[in-house]
Amino acid sequence: MARISQDQAQERHAFLLELFRKQPDISRNEAMEAYKDKFGASLNAKTFNELREQALSEADGAEEKAEETSSESESENETPAEDVASRLKVVASSEPMNGASAQPAKKPKAKGTGPKNVFVDASQEQLQFLERVVQQLQESGASNLRIDHATDRWMVLTVETK
Question: Within 13 Å, how many C-alpha atoms sit on residue 29's CB side?
Fold first, then answer.
């Protein structure tokens, strides 16, 4: 499977979002076919569902925003500066930035002195490759990296700080 650049991914996601905005009742098969016709590739179901939900939530947000602006225009008690500020807050809270999800970003954890565990879920071939890489690193002197647990579907690597 060929990798695509972030720009290409954003273009493809924008295409699907626009398709969902124009045709909110489009079937899954029709949308996937339009995507495949345009880009010659398939899209995984998780990304497809996320983009569809995003387009629907944006449509709902736009309707709520329209209702808010109509109710705000009826009540002339607010000053123009407060009106502009409240509209900016609504727009900022309803639109995701640069295609990122609307969920808040996770705060980075403080760097501790203990070992760090990395969980890897991959195919058996990829895990075997990773195991060989770890062995080569250990042979070349990386004594702070080791495989803690492993099965045929996942692996836990432990990295100890020096």
Answer: 0
C-alpha 122/C-alpha 119 separation (Å) is 10
With a CB cutoff of 8 Å and minimum separation 6, the contacts of 105 are none
Give the residue-averaged pLDDT of 132-145. Answer: 89
CA distance 10 to 5: 9
Output the CA–CA distances (angstroms, integers) from residue 96 to 46, 92, 99, 107, 132, in the order listed: 18, 8, 6, 18, 41
What's the pLDDT band for 111 if we cut at 50, 70, 90? low
> 83 to each of 77, 79, 87, 88, 93, how far by Cα in Å?
10, 6, 6, 9, 15
pLDDT in tens, 19-28: 888 887 888 8
pTM of the model: 0.39
Residue found by looking up tokens 């009540």 in the block: 75
CA distance 77 to 79: 7
- Residue 92's identity, in one-letter code, is A
